[in-house]
Amino acid sequence: MSDIPLSIVVAVAKNGVIGRGNDLPWRIPSDLKRFKAVTLGKPVIMGRKTWDSLPRKPLPGRANFVVSRTAGTFEGAIVCDTPEKALQRAREAAIASGAGEVCLIGGAALYGALLPVVSRIYLTEVDLTPEGDAHFPMLNPIEWREVSAQAFDAQPGDDAGFVVRVLERV
Questions:
Q1: pLDDT < 70 positions in the chain
Q2: Do residues 80 and 65 touch, judged by C-beta distance below 8 A?
Q3: How high is the pLDDT of residue 70?
Q4: Sequence spans of domains, the chain
Q5: Does domain 6-169 match CATH 2.70.70.10?
Q6: Judging by beta carbons within 10 Å of its beta carbon (0-12, 13-18, 19+), is residue 57 exposed, middle or buried?
């Protein structure tokens, strides 16, 4: 089952910030459309705080897996008490649905915990340096190679421009 790759989907500011107060510190609707296109039809894994921050739960068109050590109400999601269990169950769901990968969508602790087994990163580099309380882990550049990059100017409603990079593990 480990042949189903795990990919990270993340937007990161120039200073490494990915969140503030359990929310994104920017509004970039054009990148959210890209996020939807990348994750639609694929199982997604997230932490409880990421789940809590979603305006629409569960994310439609995706099997939602929430990692939480405490019991709670996660209607429409499968709750797992460890990242490893969530990954195993999400891979099973990917096989059952024919999805080619599992997407890890946050937060910072899960990114750090599962980074050693990640195959690909869909990295949006946001052209901002906001204050924040959640940061993306540092990547070792010798472990990753860039396979594509595309710059986007800020569109109406976007707080900033951004660059979308796809990185694959060497």
A1: 1-2
A2: yes
A3: 83
A4: 6-169
A5: no
A6: middle
